[in-house]
Amino acid sequence: MKSFRSRPWIAAFAVILFTAVAPAQDAPAAKPADAKTRIKAITTRLEGLVGVRGAERTATLELAAREFEAIAAEASSDKALVAQANWEAGECWRRAERIESASAAYGKVLESGDARFRQRALFQRASMLRRGKQLEEAQTLYAEAGTIDPESVRAHDARLWVARVLEMRGENDAAIESYRKAVASAVGARRIIEASDALAKILVRRGDLDGARAAIAHAEQASAGEIEEGGEDAERIQKALEEMSVR
After folding, report:
1. Which of 65, 88, 85, 61 is CA-nearest to residue 73?
2. CA angle 243, 156, 131 (to 5 degrees)
3. Which of 123, 121, 81 is closest to 105 using CA atoms?
4. Residue pLDDT, tens place only, 149-160
């Protein structure tokens, strides 16, 4: 009788059979370099959306969002990549008007604990929650965003949104106080004008015309120095003063 080894086709069949029934191995986690390359490729592809509208635009954004989410799942041990991929996913969902999906993606950015994306994820998740009428949680997230890098434009915008959300919730006294805080913490003439204008508007609605005039006067006084310096920026500041909606 011929031995097992004398029948090479039997040995080959055994190898194939063993391979087929062997336990499947988990797919290897995405390497940082590979993940970054894929993120770059997707964002480059999205640049081609300029001028694209309708169903094609939505479908492209949704596909990209799912691709970013897949990268985040594969790179789960890399906090920085998880945050970046989920942030990009959130931005795609937001642009596609998928509010709940965007909010969830921004939430995953916050869960990653990556500080680079924290303020912007707080702000955008708050905005998605606000659009979904979840005002109390939105207010909380805006408030935290306003404390990070407090002189930044995003922190300024977040503080204004705290006041606006309070106003939306019917808490007008608290809203006025928050608008006053936004004015006091604003850096630069144009931000002061924006916050003062918002404060003046709610004061007018409450019948406090003297308070509204004081808010306008504060904006004028705070802007005087930058206007005196002249130049294009001075012209823009002057125009912003003249266009304050409560005048």
Report:
1. 85
2. 90
3. 121
4. 999 999 999 999
Q: Which residues are CB-neighbours of 153 under 8 A, at least 6 positions away?
A: 191
Q: Which of 43-52, 97-106, 132-141 has the lowest mean pLDDT?
A: 43-52
Q: Could you give the number of structural domains in the chain?
A: 1
Q: Amino acid letter at 40?
A: K
User: Is 107 a domain residue?
Assistant: yes
Handedness of CA 158, 119, 44, 39 (dihedral sign): negative
Domain that holds residue 89: 31-113
**pTM higher than 0.85:** no
Specify if 15 maps to a domain.
no
**pLDDT by residue (tens digit) across 20-58?**
444 444 444 556 679 899 999 999 999 999 999 999 999
Distance CA 231, CA 234 (A): 5
DSSP string, the chain: ---GGG-HHHHHHHHHHHHHHSPPPPPPPPPHHHHHHHHHHHHHHHGGGTT--HHHHHHHHHHHHHHHHHHHHHTTT-HHHHHHHHHHHHHHHHHTT-HHHHHHHHHHHHHHT-GGGHHHHHHHHHHHHHHTT-HHHHHHHHHHHTTSSTTSHHHHHHHHHHHHHHHHTT-HHHHHHHHHHHHHH--SHHHHHHHHHHHHHHHHHTT-HHHHHHHHHHHHHHHHHHHHT-SHHHHHHHHHHHT-TT-
Residue 48 lies in a domain: yes
- C-alpha 224/C-alpha 234 separation (Å) is 9
Rounded Cα distance, 85 and 55, in Å: 24
